[in-house]
Amino acid sequence: MNNAKRPHPYQPLDGGAARLPWLWLGTWSLGGEGFGRVDADEARNLIALAWREGIRHFDTAGFYAHGKSERLLATALKGHRKEVFLSTKGGLCWQGREVRHDARPETLRKACIESMQRLATDYIDLFQLHWPDPSVPLAESIDALRILQHEGMIRYWGVGNLDPEQVRTHLPEGARIPHQVHHNPLYRSDATLQAGRENERAYHCIVSPLEQGLLGQSKTSRGFEALGKRDIRRRNPCFHSAAVVDWLRVFQSLSPSLELPRAGLITLWLLASDGVDAVVPGPKSKAQLRELLAHLEWIGAQEKNESGGIECAALARRIEAFLPRQLWRHLNSTSF
Ligand SMILES: NC(=O)c1ccc[n+]([C@@H]2O[C@H](COP(=O)([O-])OP(=O)(O)OC[C@H]3O[C@@H](n4cnc5c(N)ncnc54)[C@H](OP(=O)(O)O)[C@@H]3O)[C@@H](O)[C@H]2O)c1
């Protein structure tokens, strides 16, 4: 597949040399904790494949696999620092098997320094508040990020998991602050996306696009029964919902007719949705990354006779027209 000349319809946050600035690689599962076994060589090969395919944005967090995901990126991308965009986060930590918030300014600064060490870099492209901390005023956490930016430790600051009110109160108009939003057909965040779009407050990076595997084609798509005892996805309510199981049964029966892997299909659905700027999936193998990339063939075919490329809204209309009516309705029918 050669994407070298392909124009992309979605606005890059910071394109650089990226051929696919709107497709970021998430590395939570690649750290090898909580998502079943991940072979370290396979993880490095997957990152190398992403690089060859033109992906230059890599998302991680100090919280992921106790820092192993960040270390993996440092190894796999060695020698490419200037060409890649590294996105990481602070504000969450582990206390035994429990997740704890800590987004006090001094903790965020410490987390940023530790991330730089693990990522083997002296600057971070994007440093985000992972989640708002209920015991710290959001403005204080955000001010801490602004100071890190002012000091040159980070190029951009961003946030994750804000509600619509927090978006309107804390993200300045016109600033297009990167915001990681959990959104997919099973877990909708339309109101948050709408709030971020109003007056261009946020640049939306969609995380967990496959609802941690339920919307893919691996055994995880069978649901809770397929998860190992220590799998962190056992905490995800979607894996316990009878309504989700019913919805998935219909989805799985409607999707094979498309000859597009489900991961590629969901990526197309997201690109056709209002407010999406970048998609951040977390494949665990090269085969899963290829499933995601399959939709690029379809986009390429749409752009074949369009010398200037296709703009976002036009591409969204074509995606809607391409998906069978019944499937489109089903993808938009969730209310869990
Ligand atoms: N800011 C935040 O709060 C936040 C929260 C969550 C995630 N994130 C970011 O978003 C990224 C993606 O989220 P995620 O890992 O939770 O969810 P995801 O991309 O929805 O799901 C990833 C899991 O789905 C399964 N899968 C099956 N087929 C796949 C395919 N073709 N492509 C990708 N995955 C496939 C894999 O598990 P099996 O092989 O075991 O089935 C994989 O580990 C993370 O790596 C992280 O960077 C951020």
Number of helices: 12
Which whole number gives the mean pLDDT?
93
- The geometry reads as globular
Q: Could you give the order of strands across the largest sheet?
A: 1-2-3-6-7-8-9-10
The percent range for strand residues is 5-15%
- Major sheet, described briefly? 8 strands, parallel
Uncertain stretches of 5 or more adjacent residues? 1-7
Which distinct ligands sit in these coordinates? Answer: NADP nicotinamide-adenine-dinucleotide phosphate
Q: Give the termini distance in whole angstroms.
A: 38 Å
Write the H/E string, N to C: EHEHEEEHEHEHEHEHHEHHHH
Highlighted features:
alpha/beta; two-stranded antiparallel sheet; 37% helix; 14% strand; globular; disordered N terminus; binds NADP nicotinamide-adenine-dinucleotide phosphate
Mind sketching the topology for me?
Blueprint: E1 25-26, H1 40-52, E2 57-59, H2 68-76, E3 85-90, E4 92-95, E5 98-101, H3 105-119, E6 124-129, H4 138-150, E7 154-160, H5 164-170, E8 177-182, H6 190-197, E9 202-207, H7 242-254, H8 262-271, E10 278-280, H9 286-293, H10 295-303, H11 312-322, H12 325-331
Parallel strand pairs: 1-2, 2-3, 3-6, 6-7, 7-8, 8-9, 9-10
Antiparallel strand pairs: 4-5
Helix pairs in contact: 1-2, 3-4, 5-6, 7-12, 8-9
NADP nicotinamide-adenine-dinucleotide phosphate binds next to helix 9.
